[in-house]
Amino acid sequence: MVSYRQMGEKSFEERELILELFPGTSPELWPPGEILYYRDQEARVHIEESPLHLILEPLEPTGSTTPIVCAACHRHISRAAAQFFRFGVGQDARHFRYVALCRDTESCSGIAPPARLREILLRGILP
Fold it and tell me: What are phi and psi of 55, to 5 degrees?
């Protein structure tokens, strides 16, 4: 990340400048920022890259034993170690997308490439 200073004034990141000067810029064109990937107390998964925030709702487990590939970290995991989630697409959120992620979000977040998390996030924000 690049920071800019003007004669002892507040420091701004490149991403903040773009959003301030060009507010209509598509999120796909923003420079990468810090991506947060975590599970809350209600078992929902959050993916955030300020100012974007996507909340994925957990779905009921299925009875299948087929292994799955985690959408975030791309590891092959057993069905017992995976969980399916859904999230609304766009502002009206009438359409849903579904992903399979590791149940152990903490270990997954240490392995998941930021670009992959950003891709999932943008799929929920952009129609």
Answer: -115, 125
Beta pairing class for 76-77 and 68-69:
antiparallel
- Determine the residue type at 13: E
C-alpha Rg value of the chain to the nearest Å: 17
Residue 2: pLDDT over 50: no
Q: Cis before residue 67, ω within 30 degrees of 0?
A: no
> pLDDT for 82-110, tens place per residue?
999 999 887 776 788 999 999 999 999 88
* Domain definitions of the chain by residue range: 1-31, 35-125
Amino acid at 61: P
Residue 54 is encoded by which pair of tokens? 């996507």
Q: What are phi and psi of 14, to 5 degrees?
A: -55, -40
CB under 8 Å to 83, separation ≥6 — which residues? 58, 59, 61, 100, 101, 102, 103
Long-range contacts of 76-81 (CB under 8 A, 24+ apart): 77/102
Q: Is the predicted pLDDT of residue 23 greater than 80, yes or no? A: no
